[in-house]
Amino acid sequence: MLFNKSKLHDFADNIRFMLSGTLLRKPQFLARLLWGSVQGVLLGMPRLRFMDIAIDYNCNMTCDHCSALPMKDPEEKRLTLDEYARIARELQDEGCLIFHFTGGEPLLRKNLEEIIRAFRPERCAISIQTNGWLVTRERLRSLKAAGLDMMCVSIDSGIPEEHDAFRKTPGAHARAVAAVRMAREEGLKHLISTCVSRDNLRSEGIRRLIAFAEETGSWCHFNLAVPVGHWQGRVEMMFRPEDREEMLRMMDQHPCIKWDMRGNWLRVGCGAVKEKLYLSPYGNLMPCPFIQIALGNLRSESLRQVRDRSLACEEFRTYAPLCLAAEDADFVARTPCYLPGNKKPITSYRDVTWLTPVQPSSNPPEQS
Ligand code: SF4
After folding, report:
1. Does pTM surpass 0.85?
2. From edge to edge, which strands make up the β-sheet containing 219-224?
3. Which of 4, 7, 96, 142 is the most exposed place for a label (fewest CB within 10 A)?
4. Cα separation, 186 vs 22, whole angstroms
5. What gap in Å lies between CA 50 and CA 276, rounded to an integer?
6. How far apart are the CA of 318 and the centre of ligand 1, in A?
7. Number of helices and strands (H, E) in the chain?
8. Does 195 sit in the ligand 1 pocket, CB within 6 Å?
9. How many Å apart are CA 199 and CA 149, to the nearest integer?
10. Residue 354 has what pLDDT?
11. Strand 296-297 and strand 284-286: pairing?
């Protein structure tokens, strides 16, 4: 059996998570969550749910596995506040409930609070991804006042020396751990995210990290290793079926472990394009942070246009049973962003010859 935990249980867990903390004080968000659940779950409509928004590719660390920094292009202009406000409206019209600001390191952006406000946080859940180094009580309070609900701290291992070596930054583990504790004290939801590969899944470092998550009441989000960014072409890191089995066993044992494939509207599988998307600082819209090919650019096209075109491709119309980027060897072998030598994401959808248009005789999208 592919999944030994019921979809209903995962869905209930996600809803419970949303119905707590600062989000309970956002009636407009709660009304949108209810309506989104009706549309996404009961009516089976392809409603957006989650958006990764990279606001900057600058960072104060140079981690071994970083997938984002190679996408930095000094010749491209970052989106302005006005553009973010317009894009936020389009995304919310398509149903998006959660905006996850990432980078690079988003806390390097001095105007992060203004960017958060541009997304109208009273209508949505706002989260940031950080390495924790720049987290201070004052900044957390300022971000919370702007509308921040959750903070997700990247921690690579529960063994401080391993984490620091990975991030090439002595003291990084201590600051990350302190950031999680501070978020908890300040009443923000707190998550830990970590990259798991064939190499480290069964390691002492991951065991200790799970123990820390359980001690602090954090969710521990597993990101599967993907051969992009600094690990471009490293297909030997990708999960095989036995690794997935082991991870699912760990998830049963430790309910704090969460995984992208089980966070959808009551469906299990890859939610790219159907429920989630990734926006680069330059307006490029990608299926997810780990499929680094632009489907279009929101400076020149509407979200609806780009999404409709992308949903009309075999790769994204259904919930693929494997993570396309981290488990599907066929997808990785034919998709240019994973091939050594391609240094930047492909930025024009017209170059995306690897997508397969849906044939007229195809069945309608699955409603699993
Ligand atoms: S490709 Fe993998 S990481 Fe990306 S959305 Fe699909 S399941 Fe998630």
Report:
1. yes
2. 257-259, 219-224, 189-196, 150-154, 125-130, 98-102, 50-54, 276-279, 284-286, 296-297
3. 4
4. 11
5. 5
6. 12
7. 12, 10
8. no
9. 33
10. 59
11. antiparallel
